[in-house]
Amino acid sequence: MIFTSQFWLSITFFAFYFSWGIFMPYWNAWLVSEKHLPVETASSLIAAGLLVRAASTFFLYPAVSAKYPAGTLLKWFTVAAALLSLFFIPASGYGTLLLIMVAFSLVYPVIMPMADSMGALLMKTEKIHYGKSRSWGSIGYTAAVFLIGIVTAIFTDAAILYMLIGSLLFMAAAAFYYMPPVLRERGNLRRVPLRQLFRSRRFVTALIICILIQGAHAAYYNYGVLYLQHLGVSSVWTGVILNIAVAAEIIFFSVADRFLRHVSVPVMFTWAACAAVLRWSAMFLFPTVAVYVFVQVFHAFTFGLAHYAFIRLLYQEFDSSEIPAAQGVYSSLGMGLSTAILTFGAGYLYEIEPRLAFLSMAVFALPAVFISLLIIKGKS
């Protein structure tokens, strides 16, 4: 088979997001059911992992990306993640689980900004279509969520860990199979000072908006499966319902390059922010399976559109050597630290009343609407 950069990037996104489709929505449920932790204790492990992820993507990833080619880093990090996942098998007790979670979170989540940085770099150097390849990441996520719903119904939640290990081994194999030449080159690698990135007003504003929109997914990512169980949904149907969001995301990314070519970044952020407020408000106001299913479609906007807008901004605002550092900051603050902090708060609210966790997400996302509108007004 002849690989192209476009095809390779699609496979890379598929491989990573297949594993992410196991880890992100089901890890909390696995800790509760298999390690017998209370929801609040399991949530603290998840939040600790997110804090480590934030630090790793903010400091570690930009540092190593300034010294080593992206392709080399992808191989190192995928192998390390696969090996570390094995330690969860014998782990027991909060202290041991916390130690492994910290180590795992140092390397595994870094692969996400790494893949996006490679996508932005290939957009610049080889004019690939980011949305087309990223849609395959959503397909991988969908496949994982669908399969794990069936597997856990047959083998219980114990299968979650083993499916995660298998998916990480597949991801490592995919990383070693092929690598675009431009990602094997050292090129003009250099350390980019963070103050250089923060001189860009567009970058700072977009980062704040993403912190508000992406961070507001905390309750959904960490308590979505538990909430469906609270509503009486079976394991198989939980996988089907979660896949609706990813199906909407797949459709979005597959058409984004064509339909959003002439739409400005601030307008895209405005749409995404409004969708976030509506999505989480609806889940608070109408605690039914039907509404949960309906608002899953909003994921195309609350995650997909916000993410696409930020990648577009990176492509427009920075050169190739600056993109990894900028992507690391985005992943750290926009998708790591904000989610970690909100996971702590949402966990306490979920224990009081599950719906309150989603109301807090709507309130958190609301300022993003006004910031985006102010940017548009300022340009008019």
Structural features, described:
The chain is mainly alpha-helical and 380 residues long. It has helices at residues 5-34, 39-65, 70-85, 94-107, 111-126, 130-155, 159-177, 181-184, 194-197, 201-215, 218-230, 235-259, 265-285, 289-295, 299-317, 323-352, 354-379. Helix 1 (5-34) runs parallel beside helix 6 (130-155), helix 10 (201-215) runs antiparallel to helix 15 and helix 10 runs antiparallel to helix 17. The longest helix has 30 residues, at 5-34. It has one domain (5-185, 194-379): Up-down Bundle (Growth Hormone, Chain: A), CATH 1.20.1250.20.
CATH superfamily: MFS general substrate transporter like domains
Number of strands: 0
Structural class: mainly alpha
Contiguous uncertain segments of 5+ residues: none
CATH architecture: Up-down Bundle
What does the overall shape look like? Answer: globular
**What's the pLDDT, averaged over the residues?**
86
Name the helicity range.
over 70%
Element-level helix/strand string: HHHHHHHHHHHHHHHHH
How many whole angstroms does the radius of gyration measure?
19 Å
CATH topology name: Growth Hormone, Chain: A
Secondary structure blueprint with pairings:
Blueprint: H1 5-34, H2 39-65, H3 70-85, H4 94-107, H5 111-126, H6 130-155, H7 159-177, H8 181-184, H9 194-197, H10 201-215, H11 218-230, H12 235-259, H13 265-285, H14 289-295, H15 299-317, H16 323-352, H17 354-379
